[in-house]
Specification:
By secondary structure, the protein is mainly α. Helix content is 67%, strand content 0%. The chain has helices spanning 8-17, 25-35, 37-44, 62-101, 119-138, 144-151, 157-160, 166-175, 178-196, 205-224.
Length: 225
């Protein structure tokens, strides 16, 4: 059955009929209008309801549900900000150390500059990067890829990195030569120690890769929720 439109007054009436205490109805209406009934009530009411029913537990107020909603929103915001910082740092380090070790033009499109035991994955990664370059070159609006192609006849890794997803960047790191991975792991340890004001973080390439993959999976999950 379809779900018909409900006015704010009707939404409040439904919540009250289910036993929810609403101390300030006008404030509740504004919260529902700004945050969406579905996002607030459907997601977070379950923590305050009698099992197997649509009724609320005794003495539960709208403000309690709203507090959980804002708490969850803040946690997601903190995590996503941290993920963005890590992604920027990882992209910058990969671009620096890979380009330092492999200085020829389009070195990131040369399969020989990666781990020779992972050829298939490397070819797939390089294909994806090539498609990104081609896509940016075809765009009608100006972008940094088109600028470098037109003026320098080459797109450096530190430019194309801005157009790669976090998943692609993590895979890039996974497929790098061990010596290049080790440099980044060492620098990431330094970065983490500085950020946490400690000296106890010591990451090798395997640990760093594991952390990066977990961050990527968690980030995707947080985005979907």
């Amino acid at each position: 059955m379809s779900k018909p439109f409900k006015t704010l007054d009707e939404q409040i009436s439904i919540l009250k009929s289910r036993g929810l205490i609403i101390p300030d109805e006008e404030a509740a209406k504004l919260s529902l209008l700004c945050n969406n009934y579905y996002n607030v009530i459907n997601y977070y009411s379950k923590f305050f309801m009698v099992g197997g029913t649509d009724n609320y537990l005794p003495d539960v107020s709208f403000n309690e549900i709203l507090s959980v909603y804002y708490f969850d929103k803040e946690i997601k915001s903190i995590f996503l900000k941290a993920t963005i910082d890590i992604e920027k740092c990882l992209k910058s380090m990969i671009a620096y150390y890979f380009s330092e070790a492999h200085s020829e033009d389009y070195s990131y499109l040369n399969v020989n500059n990666f781990d020779c035991s992972k050829i298939t994955k490397t070819v797939n990664l390089i294909s994806g990067i090539s498609k990104t370059i081609a896509q940016k070159e075809r765009e009608k609006i100006d972008n940094s890829v088109k600028h470098y192609l037109n003026h320098h006849f080459n797109v450096p890794l530190w430019v194309i990195m801005n157009y790669l997803s976090f998943g692609q960047v993590v895979q890039f790191y996974e497929l790098m030569k061990q010596s290049d991975q080790n440099k980044i792991a060492k620098r990431f340890s330094d970065f983490s120690n500085k950020a946490l004001n400690t000296t106890t973080v010591h990451l090798d390439s395997k640990k760093l890769l594991s952390y990066l993959k977990n961050i990527g999976l968690t980030s995707n999950l947080v985005t979907l929720l």
